[in-house]
Every structure is written in structure tokens, then in C-alpha cells.
Amino acid sequence: MDASRFDALSRSLGSHACRRGLLGGVLVTLGRGVLPLVNSEAKQRHRRTKRKKLQRNEFGCISVGRACRGKDTNCCSGICKGKKPKKGEKDKSKCVGHDASTCLPGQMESVCGGTDLLCTTSTGDTKGLCEMTTGNAAYCVANARCWPCSKDADCHPFCGLQAACFRCAGFCADTGGTVCGGQGNCPGFPPLPP
């Protein structure tokens, strides 16, 4: 660039209107570079606080040991241990089983595909057999009947509040492979639905 052109350029930048225009241009250019970064950070923050979807099993409920957002009805067992998480907090609540006695998860009676393992129900006076609930929990059952169920609550009207819904695909094919069982008698069963 020769000296005369440089002088002309510097004189033009010296006027107030041009300096304002130059400053405006610089600010617009900077704004275009910074604005996407601000939007990107806001999107990442939103993504972090988004809730994870609950992990439901094939019965449409949450198995033992999984997060349940502090809500009993989400669990197959009907028991969610822990508080509902506040917005943005990690869910520390978990579904838990009940009335397992000496049974371990995965144990079930021989007609359901396992080995007959005796247990004593939580009432303490009745002998039972180990079963595995639809929520993958161990359960000691004294009395049961093939019945279409998915959660323990589906069995409460027939076998009481300690009842459970468990799997027995080999024996109860006509009910979808499920059984309602209880700690004592289950007198409330109506005839099986057609």
C-alpha cells in the first residue's frame, strides 16, 4: 500500500461517523462469535437436567433394584424405597421386594422351571416355596393360583396385602405365565376369565 492511500484511509477512520461504524462492525462480529457459545452452553445445561426414562420390564413395571422416582406404583412390588428426587437431582430411590424369607432372587419351584426350595412365610407359621416375582424379587409363597397379573397389587384382592405376582411360564401358559400367591390362604379368587 502506498503512502497516499494509507493517509486517505487513516483520515477516513479519523472521522466520528466512521469510527462508530467500525466499532459497531467489531461488536457485531464479536457478538456473532459469542452468541452461539452462549446458546450451546444453555442447551447443554438443559440436556443435563433432562430426566432419564424409567426402565420398565416386560410386565410394564420396574424391577427390584431399579430407580422408581420415589413412587410406589412404578414398582412391580408396589414398594419404592427413597424420596422423589428434586428437579436436576439424581434419582436415588429404588424398588424393593417383600416377604422373601430365606429365598434368593431367581429361585422358583419345579413346576415353574426351578428346584423346590422350602421357606417359612413372613407370618412364621406357614411353610412355603421360593418363587421369583414379576419384579425379579425373591418371594416365599404358601398358596397360589394361576392368574393374569403383572404387579403384586393385582393379587392383593385375592391373597391380601402381602400377595405377589410371580412367574410360572411352564405351568400357567393360559394366564400368560403368571401366578398370584400369598403368605396364607387366598380365598378371594373368582373363576378364571375366559
Detailed description of the structure:
- There is one protein chain.
- With about 190 residues, this protein is α+β, with helices and mostly antiparallel strands.
- Among the domains are: about 45 residues; about 70 residues, no CATH class.
- Helix content is about 25%, strand content about 15%.
- The strands form three sheets. A three-stranded antiparallel β-sheet has the order 3-4-5, with no helix packed on it. Strands 6-8-7 form a three-stranded antiparallel β-sheet. A two-stranded antiparallel ribbon has the order 1-2.
- The mean pLDDT is about 80.
Report a brief summary of the structure:
With 194 residues, the chain is an alpha+beta fold.
Overview features:
single chain, 194 residues, alpha+beta, 3-stranded antiparallel beta sheet, 3 helices, 8 strands, 15% strand, elongated
